[in-house]
Amino acid sequence: MGSLANWAGNVQFRAATVHRPASVPELQRLVASSARIRAIGTGHSFSPVADTDGDLVSLAGLPPVVDVDTTAAAVRVSAGQRYSDIAPRMHAAGLALANLASLPHISVAGAVATGTHGSGDANQSLAAAVSALELVVAGGDLVQVSRDADPARFPGLVVALGACGVVTSLTLDAIPAFAVRQWVYEDVPFSEVMAAFDDIASAAYSVSMWTDWRGERMTQVWLKRADPADVPPERWHGGRLADADLHPIAGLPAANCTPQLGRPGPWHERLPHFRPEFTPSAGEELQSEFLLDRAHAVDALAALSRIAATLAPAVQVSEIRTVAADTLWLSPAHGNDSVAFHFTWVPDPGAVAPALSAAQAALAPFGPRPHWGKLSTIPAADVAGRYPRMDDFRRLVAEFDGPGQFRNEYADAYLWPGG
Ligand SMILES: Cc1cc2nc3c(=O)[nH]c(=O)nc-3n(C[C@H](O)[C@H](O)[C@H](O)COP(=O)(O)OP(=O)(O)OC[C@H]3O[C@@H](n4cnc5c(N)ncnc54)[C@H](O)[C@@H]3O)c2cc1C
Questions:
Q1: Cα 404 from Cα 112, distance rounded (Å)
Q2: What phi, psi does 302 have (nearest 5°)?
Q3: Partner of 107 at 20 to 30 A CA spacing, among 61, 178, 230, 271?
Q4: What is the fold of 66-177?
Q5: What residue ranges do the domains of the chain occupy?
């Protein structure tokens, strides 16, 4: 981060200082001496989830640990590492993560803290891969927790919005490295998606459906296939196979997107939509995303298509993905095999506001859970009520952060709606 703003520039962090400790003991001393402190990852959240009026602390200066354990099929990483830092190291050792988000530049700790996800019927949120955490809790103590040793509390500590302490390292489950080929279909009609949602969503290891709401169709459907490749048919569900690499936003160059046209590549160079070697420009978009039970996918798509005229002027592109259920208390996919409706908005809050309200109203009957790192104006009490373990999470925060050192307004609003 060059300045005290997030990646998109829509959140000006109020912290006077961003600390950058070079060691865990230095971080512990910092936490012990700070009245109010919060971790910041790579600042890619659009919501003020990382904001604080106290101190911010970045872990990007910690020694960069990537300990690959091929026997245990696991990797332990220091919290400031980005997925693009760790994935090539894992691949070189013959291992992979089961999934990645669209952008590999985000920090592992930051992505995990907000329940960040990719796509795929069988793929859970990235946080579901976490088997152990080390964190500095209130007062500066260093604590280790793991899925096996602490099954009662661990599911609350992973997607924790930074509210339980500063995570210093994470251990992630790994699977054998695999190759992926990416194919894109253009102009798949909504009618086909509604008639065959499950077929389309399950057509590949990871599927992304894109629309600009300017026609009754998915402008593109991206299929990331991990199976041995047969060349897919020219026509599929009413769409046609693309004959050139594409950017999901019409008119933007495909050069910063991961290769398509079925060219095989390692998992970490195909599962994200964007290449790590291109730094995406800042400040040119806002984002919102809502996860809901995938049983409602078709009805929710129909509801949104009815307000397409309101959405279209404010949307650069929307993406529809599926996410497998997990058990993490604050994961937006908690307990539900989910469908995620994402909106990349124009970078104009005034234009976005009516479209965001309309999208939320259209999705309201399906009890959507907003992505913690993106924009939402759904009342906090409604959101909190959609998490059956919220009371348990409140108790966990009280246990790990008695003095309230890690509290911020954003998390407080959901934890204690109404004050
Ligand atoms: C271009 C773009 C594409 C995106 N694509 C996707 C996508 O495909 N799927 C998806 O689900 N989301 C996506 N997102 C959202 C993004 O994944 C989340 O906002 C994620 O949290 C960003 O990670 P970060 O490192 O920037 O975290 P930050 O925004 O810096 O912080 C997020 C939260 O993590 C906490 N945190 C950070 N580090 C630590 C730590 N060490 N210990 C404790 N808490 C910590 C912070 O306190 C804060 O609460 C995208 C965002 C952008 C800008």
A1: 21
A2: -65, -40
A3: 178
A4: 3.30.465
A5: 66-177, 179-267+279-378
Tally Cβ neighbours within 10 Å of residue 385. 12
Fold (CATH) for 179-267+279-378 = Alpha-Beta Plaits (3.30.70)
Burial category of 348 from C-beta neighbours within 10 Å (exposed 0-12, middle 13-18, buried 19 and up): exposed
- Ligand 1 mean position, distance from CA 403 (Å): 25
Measured CA to CA, the distance from residue 153 to residue 247 in angstroms comes to 41
Q: Which of 103, 135, 339, 408 to mutate to test the pocket of ligand 1 (most atoms within 8 A of CB)?
A: 103
Q: Are 330 and 156 in contact (CB under 8 A)?
A: yes
pLDDT digits (tens, 9 = 90+) for 288-300: 999 999 999 999 9
CA 240–ligand 1 middle distance (angstroms): 34
Query: pLDDT tens, 321-360?
Result: 999 999 999 999 999 999 999 999 999 999 999 999 999 9
Q: Check: CB of residue 200 under 8 Å from CB of residue 152.
A: no
